[in-house]
Amino acid sequence: MLPEPFAVGAGRRAVPVLDEHAAAAAAPGVPGPGRVPFEETEKKFGTGQSLTSHITISEWLDEWLAGKKKLSDGGKSRYDIDVRVHLKPHLGHVRRDRLTVARLDAMFAAIEATNEEIRDANTMRRAALEELSTIPAKGKENRALRKGLKAAIEAMPPFRRVTGMASQHRIKATLRAALNTAIKRGDLSSNAAAHVELEPAERPKALVWRTERVEEWMRTGLRPSPVMVWTPEQTGAFLDFVADHWLYGVWHVIAFRGLRRGEACGCRRGDRNRLAKTLTIAKQLVQTRTENGWGVRESAPKTSGARVIAVDSVTDEVIDGQLARQEAKRRDLGEAWTDTGRLFTMEDGTWIDPRWLSEEFDRLVAASGLPPIRLHDLRHGAATLMLAAGVDAKIVAETLGHSDTRITREVYQSVLPEVALQAAEATARMVPRGDADKPSPGLTDVDLGRLLASPAFAARLAALDLHAETFVEQMTEAIRAAVREDPELDRAAAKPRSGTAEENRAEAAEAAATLVPLRRGATEDDDCRAAPENTSAHATLTPEGAKIITFPSGRVRA
Fold first, then answer.
1. Within a 10 A sphere around the Cβ of 361, how many other Cβ atoms?
2. Is the per-residue pLDDT at 116 higher than 90?
3. Element holding 285 (H helix, E strand)
4. Are 228 and 341 in contact (CB under 8 A)?
5. Where is the Tyr recombinase domain (predicted)?
6. Cα gap 511→285, rounded to integer Å
7. End-to-end CA distance of the chain, in Å?
C-alpha cells in the first residue's frame, strides 16, 4: 500500500518519498522485472495518473474505437483493418504505459519481413501459373504434368497484397490518434507513435498509356506504374466496345464526370435535374463488414459531402438511355423487378456491389484488348480531360469532390502530355517579347469552334493539298496564320470567364466531353452503331509519323 505522500494532490512534497522507494527498488535483492523507472513513476504522479491500474494496447484500442461515434463507414473499416490485422497481433499484449519506440520499430520490421515472404510466395505462384500455361492440354504425359502442377499450385498460398509504406503510415497514424486520446484524458504522458520514423510513402505517379508504353506492355505484360491513364482515343475505344453493356451509363459517367465508384452506384433517379442538366452527388454505396462477411450499405460521399455537378449534353443523353432501358426491363420482369430508386442498377433493379463493379470493369478491359487500368483510373482520366480542355482547377476539384484544389493539381495536372505542353507554352508567353520575336501561337490554345468558323482559316484550308506529304505542316501553318490574323482565336488571350459558377461548370463539362471521340451516342435510336475497326477511327489530327496501335474491334454485351 502506498504511503500517504503518494496521494494525488500531495504535490512535490512526495518527491523525497518517491526517491526513497526508487532507491529501494534499485537495491540488491529486488527483482528486476518488477521495478519501474523513477522518471516514469514521477511523471505519472505529477500528472495525476493512477500508479496501480494498467491497461493493454488491445484493451485500449477496443475502448477507443467504441468511442468513435462520428466515423464514416470507410473510416471504421480502415481503423478495423489497422487494429485487427496489425496492431493487436503485434502490440495487443503490451501495457499501454510500457509502449516504446523500440517496440514499434520491431513491429514495422516484422511487417517488412512478412512483405518479403508475400513477395516470394507471389513470385512462386506466378511462375507456376506461367509454366502451366505453356503445357499443352492434349497428350497423356502433358495431362499428368498439368495435374501435378495444378496440385502444387493449390497447395501454395494465394496471391496476397503487401503492406506498403502508405499503409504503414496509416497504421502509425491510427495508433498515434488512439494514444493522443489517452493523453487528452490524462491517462498517458507521452506518445511513442509520434516518434517513430518510417520511409516516406511516395504517391505512385500517374502515367499515360502512350505508344511506347503500350508496346512495352504488349512485350512484357508489365505496367509502367500502378496508376495508368488512357488517352482520349483509348477511352473512346473502350466506350465504343461496351456500348451495348447494361451498365454503359456507369462507365460513361465515371469517364466523363469523374464520379467515384461508390458515388456512381449510389446515384438516385431523384438526384438528377433534367431541366438544369445537373446531378447531385449526395449518396454512395460502400462495402462494410457484417456478421456474415461483407455487405453493401449507403453512406454520405467521401470528404466534401454532397455536391452538384454539371452534366454535358452527351452524358445527358446517356442517362436518358439508361433510364429507358431500366423501364423496359422493369416491364419485362414485372414483380421480379426490385425498385431501389437508383440511377444505375443491376438488371433486376437491385443495388450494384462496388466490388463487383471493379471486377466487371477489369473483365471488360481485358476483353477489349486495351492496356489495363483500374476503375479508379477512369476517374483519373476524367480529371485529366477537364484539365486538358482548359477547365479551371477549382471547377475540376468541385466536380471530383476534392476538399482542396492542391489535391487536384498534385494528383492529376501532370498526367497528359497536352496539359504539360499548355503549361510550357503559358510559361513562355510570360516573358515580354517584341513583335518580331514573338513565338507562333500554340495549337493547344486554339479555340477550335471559332477556328472552323473563321473565314481566314476556311480560305487557307481550301488551298491545302490533302494528298501532299507535307499536309500536316501546311495545316499547322494555316492554323497559326489564322490565329495571327485573328487573335480572338487564341484562347490564352481570351478574357476570363464572367459567367455564374453554374454556367462555368456546364461549359467545363461540354469542353471535356469534346475531347473523347466516340463513334456513336448511347441512345437506343442512334444510327451510328458500328463498332470501330481500331483506335485510328478515334484519332483526330494524329501527328505525322505517329504509330497507330490497333486493338480488337467489337462490342460486348452484359
1. 23
2. yes
3. strand 284-290
4. no
5. 225-425
6. 29
7. 75
pLDDT, tens digit, for every residue of 190-219? Answer: 999 999 999 988 777 778 898 899 999 998
Residue 288, SS3 per DSSP: strand
SS3 per residue for 46-104:
HCCCCCCCCCEHHHHHHHHHHCCCCCCHHHHHHHHHHHHHHHHHHHCCCEHHHCCHHHH
**Residue 360 to residues 256, 433, 505, Cα–Cα distance (Å):** 19, 54, 31
Phi-psi region of 245 (alpha: psi -120 to 50; beta: other; left: phi over 0): beta
Give me the torsion for CA of 271, 272, 277, 280, rounded to 10°.
20
Confidence of residue 477 (pLDDT cuts 50, 70, 90): confident
Write down the mean pLDDT value for the chain.
Answer: 75
The dihedral built from the CA positions of residue 125, 374, 415 and 302, taken in this order, carries a sign that is negative
* Nearest-angstrom CA–CA distance, 382 and 307: 17
Orientation of helix 140-155 relative to helix 101-134, angle to 10°: 170
Q: Which set of grid coordinates corresponds to residue 68?
A: 468513435
Better-scored residue on pLDDT, 225 or 409: 225
pLDDT at 423: 47
What cell does 403 get?
476538399
Instruction: With CA atoms as reference, report the closest residue to 486 among 461, 455, 459, 513.
Output: 455
**DSSP readout, 14-41?**
GHHHHHHHHHHHHSTTS-STT---HHHH
Q: Is 307 helix (H, G, I), strand (E, B) or coil?
A: strand
Q: How far apart are CA 423 and CA 433, in angstroms?
A: 18
Radius of gyration for the chain, computed over Cα atoms and rounded to the nearest angstrom = 31
More confident residue, 220 or 74: 220
Predicted local distance difference test score (pLDDT) of residue 225:
86
**Region of 62 on the Ramachandran plot (φ > 0 left; ψ -120 to 50 alpha; else beta):** alpha
